[in-house]
Amino acid sequence: MSAHEYSLHFLVNELVRSSNVNLKGTNLAPEAILDYFNKNTNQQANTYTPAELSDAKRKLFSNSLSANEFVELYDSLKARHVRDLDSIIIILSHIVDNPEVIISSIMSDGDIRRRTVTPSSSTEFLSRPPWFNERLRLLWDFYPTPEKFEPDVAIGRLSVMEQEAIIVEDLLLCMLGIEGKFIKTPSLTDKQAQRSFHIDRSLDPTLRDLARRMVPLCSNHSLIVRFIEDRLQYKYGLINHALAGALREVVQRYYVFVSQLETQQQQSLLTLQTLWFHTEPVMEMMEVVANIVRILNKGNTIGRAVLDLLHEQTLKLSGHKQAYDICFFLAKSAYKPYLTMLETWIHNGLIDDPYGEFMVQENKDIIHHESSLEQEFNDKFWSRRYTLQRNNTPILFQSSSEMILNTGKYLNAIRESAFDYNDDMNMDMSTSILRIDKQLLMNNYKKLEYTIHEKDLDETLEEAYKYASEILLDLILNKYHLIERFQTLKHYFLIDKGDYIVQFMDSAEDELTKRARDIDENKIQSLLDVSFALTSDDPYKDDVRIKMFHYDLISMLERVINVESSMNINESMEIKLTGLESFSLDYDVKWPISLVINRNCLTRYQMLFRFLFYIKYIERLLCNVWRAHKNGGRRRRKGREKRNIITKPNGAAYLRHKMLHFVQNLLYYMSFEVIESHWHTFQNNLKKVTNIDELLKYHLLFLDNCLRDCMLTSVHLLRHIHKIMATCVMFANAMDNVDDDNDYDSLPGAVVASFNNNFTEQLRQLLDAISKEDGPVNGSSGGGQKHTLTNIIHR
């Protein structure tokens, strides 16, 4: 398939999928529509008037089951000046107008199998025409005859030499599937049954015994012929078709052997003993083939099971050269279509599997435009678009199945990226595909051939895997600047530089202190953009958006832990939630960056940001209390001296200092001891990645380690910290409500003591909870470590 043909195929497939046009129950494959397009479109004059295009779009829109999706896709493709878009739209509108006429012109005898048998139609296949079962003499098998075995003349009345000549001729006929005069076979009730033969009882006993020895050859030939005819049906798949073709070659060689015997018989050189001498080695080979056929018939075997059986038989007979050669030939032939599918997958990233026999299955309902950043916590495209089918994986590829899956996934991701990335914005789709096809071309790759030794195939598979992983990794890291995007996430989500947060809180604090449902999100977004513009020159800052959640951080953690269960958010919680508790950031990610920065990862970034942002805000409140103490303390002391008022310190300054000390140390711990430490490890890991899966693993490991060490993986610990933060907020509000003319020490001592007792008790509970959960960390290289927050609390 050329680059232009591939781009047309993709274009037709996307338009048909998005429009979901109703063709009166007929499901046309993109190949069929493309053929009709090539036959009925003048490539030199494919311009259409605006009225024709408008009418064609109107027809597709009115007959579409997904009209909005169709309009969005069309506008997107039109904006990119996709080649042949208008011609395809016109053709599709013609098909909608006259589906019966168009379909009948598309479907030809030679193409009918390829266009009606698809992987999705795994239970419905074309059946043989009725005349096939009526014309039984088309088969190279015995024609059913009445149950009559008495010949007109008893062969026993003839001389022994005449009997021998007649029985030799009958045996040669039976070897070809034709009944003789004195050797008969009854009709079969089961097409998979072993055929039996009746030899005239009047035949000389010696001749009869010798003939009976050769009858199994005729029976095995009949069984093999019936198997060939049966397995050529569409429902048995390409592997059985290939096996049937190989068996047909074996039978053809067998016919050559019988014709040579017949030549000797016509020259009166073939006696029954000579016939037995020649047929004995052939009988052994046919028995080997017939045994394989019996096993396949017993389980009605298809696909991978056929390959495994042939492989096992080949290994089992490796000590018998002739039997090994014929088994190896059958296995090699049956493996050909499977290896062809495998080569297409590991070298092109495409699946050509009309019968669902390949080890990799494609879920076409999941495309990257829909699944990259949907409102769910898992990235579907990478994990579920292509899945490994263990029941379709032959023994020969069991150990390398994961590598095979990833190889094709890498190439497919590059192909998908061809429609989203252009160095030149004026480059059309076909040019982009051509560039990607040239990039994907692997020079001098070794073709896959069947072998009984698994390691002989590993070298070719590893070369393809290494080649594909290097291309995709280079594409994501260099052309899509993944490292720079990681820096953007760290700068804004992990707040490694707090300059924009200070600017943003100064301007948006009044708005964020409102209830979450009363906040103007457009205003918050504008204030955030201004903060970015004043404090940062990050090239990807425009991709950062605000995100207002309707549930708090604890509920978010519970939703992530119970991602598969549907949880209803308490409405009362949403009413009480403030903007500070619901505020977070989001990130606009395009394909193929969404493979790495998927919704799963973004959820982790958002949890870390919400935690850091809220602690930053509490630090801000306590710093304001400290500032008020510092600026107003001297004035208030002079006022007390003039009025001769003596007040005892109530401990408010000490409690404020203790709270501020804890919050600042908590921020220091999270920012430097956790995030910076794991970020440094992550950067070192990025330097040694060799494929996209390692990149995904290291990125997820970095986020999981940050969440774990920030205690965001434990709802129990997070509740304790949330209580401490709530106490700090209430204390700061109480200090803020003290009148400026009064001394902070005038706050009732009981109130301060209550805050102090609550804060101290909550710290103690947090320490106890951390001590209970401390232990070895899974996957750590140093034998395990403990939460270092214990040291902060002791400080």
Question: How would you sum up this structure in a few lines?
Answer:
By secondary structure, this protein is mostly helical.
Structure report:
The protein is mainly alpha-helical. It has 4 domains: 3-114, no CATH class; 135-146 and 153-302, no CATH class; 353-480, no CATH class; 493-561 and 577-636 and 649-774 and 787-794, Gamma-tubulin complex, C-terminal domain (Four Helix Bundle (Hemerythrin (Met), subunit A), Up-down Bundle). It is built from 31 helices and 6 strands. The protein has helices spanning 3-19, 30-40, 50-63, 67-79, 85-97, 99-106, 112-116, 130-134, 160-175, 205-231, 237-266, 272-299, 304-316, 321-348, 368-371, 380-384, 401-417, 429-440, 455-479, 482-492, 499-512, 521-535, 553-561, 571-576, 579-582, 599-642, 652-686, 692-709, 715-736, 749-773, 789-794; strands at residues 183-184, 198-199, 360-362, 386-388, 544-548, 583-587. The strands form 3 sheets. The protein has a two-stranded antiparallel sheet with strand order 1-2. A two-stranded antiparallel ribbon has the order 3-4. Helix 12 (272-299) runs parallel beside helix 14 (321-348), helix 21 (499-512) runs antiparallel to helix 22 (521-535) and helix 29 (715-736) runs antiparallel to helix 30. The longest helix is centred in the last third of the chain and has 44 residues, at 599-642. It is elongated, with a radius of gyration of 39 Å.
